Amino acid sequence: MRLPSRKYGSLLAATLTAALLPATALGTPAPESHTRVSESRDAVRLTSPGYSVSVRTDGQLALTTRRSDRTVLTTGPEALRFHSGGTWQHATRLTDWRWQAGVLTLTADTTLPGAHVEARLTPASDRYLLDWEVKGVKATGLGLTYDLSSAGHWYGHGETATPAGGPYTDQPWPLDAGRVEQEDFSAASYQMVDPFWYTASSAGLYVDTGDTMDVSLNAGGDGLGRFTVESGATYKATVFVESTPRAVYRDYIGIVGRPRQSDATYEQYARPLWNSWAQFYTKVDQAKLLDYATDLHDNGLEGHTVQLDDKWESNYGNMTFDPKAYPDPRAMSDRIHDLGYDFGLWVTLWINLDSANYRYAADHDYLLRDATDPAKPCTVKWWNGTAGIVDLANPEAKAWYRSNLRKLMDTYRVDGLKFDTRFFDDHCTGRDGNTRTDYQRLGSELADTYDLQGAGIRVHWGRPAHESGFVIRQIDKGTGWNSLRASVTQNLALSTIGYPFIETDMIGGSLGRPAPTKEVLVRWAQSASYMPLMYASTSPVDTIDPTTGQKVDYDDETVALYREATARHERLAPYVWDQVRDTLRTGDPIVRPLFFDFPRDRAGYTIDDQWMLGPAVLAAPNLTSSPSRDIHLPPGTWYDVNRATTVKGPATLTSYPTPLTVTPAFVNLRAEGADEALRALR
Prior knowledge:
It is built from 14 helices and 38 strands. By secondary structure, it is an alpha+beta fold. The strands form seven sheets. It has an 18-stranded antiparallel β-sheet that branches. Strands 33-34-35-38-36-37 form a six-stranded antiparallel β-sheet. It has a five-stranded parallel β-sheet with strand order 26-21-20-19-30. It is globular and about 80 Å long.
């Protein structure tokens, strides 16, 4: 049907009805198996059971999604935009539409002469597919723009790059509370990101792409979300329309998959992992590591593993110990085992150019190739120099790398590994057509054959990463209060894009910043005690301030409170383990925002310093230097762990006293798992 250019006169509404066709990428067809498409003076409206989508006809192209007569998502200015000829252009007026075989096809003019946009809406019962492309010109980028306020608050995304220091010291929650500006949003990014966002209005957006994106939310305070794919190929997006944010999350998990396993053992959930990084950074050697492990042991700071992080190799990629710093690495490993810990090593597929292994790998075509000149190895700069990357798509390269690891582990009694940095870089090209997401899969497959000792890994974006069930460790944080808060909100973000087995960055932070104060270190340990795993480094006995090189001695109270936090975490382990098993069944996150469990409690949508640990435990630790804090309790009957009293919610506890010895937490007495939680926390 051709639309008149501007004037509709007394045009009567035209209604078309057609059966929806099943589409596996879309989910379940509408229960009524019918959707109506109607035309009025100012819009074409698609009405599906549960929601409607209106397409504006009397001005610039715009899409408005409604559920129960309430707007849940609206596009912003320049809704469908594209890059061509060095400039950004966008769709303007709708010129044509047709409804056929369950698909609404839209055609619109653009600001670029000779170019038009064709878009298709394919509805299902709880979502619709929006895919579109530019015709008539060559495009190098396509983007959707949304009015953030139309959907309430926004969540998802993963680790955020922000002008305020994200992802290291800032992670806005909700996302629209800050400004997110991420030009390298990609499956090859070191940051843990997924192209999935969800909202307080229970709408959601999933962009199905393997290409790099440029994502911004509220950049410059503009109130817009821009989701741009750096490709001219068809833009494929799924818009979810649900009754709760948790239902949107489950829809997304239905696409990318839930964990088929957990790579961590019960003991790794129950007890801390001690890693050398924030304690020493690269100024570590055999004597220092043994002193570190001995001090932890002698002060009752138990854990399942002591991991030697960067730097232990003679050169990066050699996979041999520096003989000066480590005169007898097997004796070092044996001593750590004698103290009751497993021993682990930091490893990487990045081989520096000055490593003996680099020349061998390059000569045998074991390295990723350069994107601009595939005849030569790709070289990338990282925090330890310039390197090539082992190409996991080459079976011979993978076998060579694994044989080196096996020799290392067998010789020095290494129980597990911490894999660091990425398996691919955008300066490189994939072998035999393998893409960024393929290398995430290849990296997952490699890491899955080793004990990662609760240090986890950083793979993301796609079904293999989600189904592998890895523990996910955050990107390095600073050592101040802002980083502690960012570690909490980042866990909320990561767990609700489908990575349920999470931990904060090393307790106390890292990033080469001044050593954490006693208060930050203790509060971080208290916060981490209510997370699935505890990832530790800075010793509460003593550490080295990397900015001064001076020793920092913490007092006896620091050790006692840290030990108390780890003991509480271990008591919670049976309850947490139940949540792990439940996640393997449902895909639901273990750490989640209050509104996942209490969607009608509007106050929970902006709370960034409380969370649910499973269905029964509400954690509200103090993440600031204040002697008190306000605590919001959703509807229910709550047992106050510290006061041993019962509180009826919803309620706000104002100025709840939080001396350093107090970690506020509450148990929902009517929730599943409440008895197990009470046994741990009373």
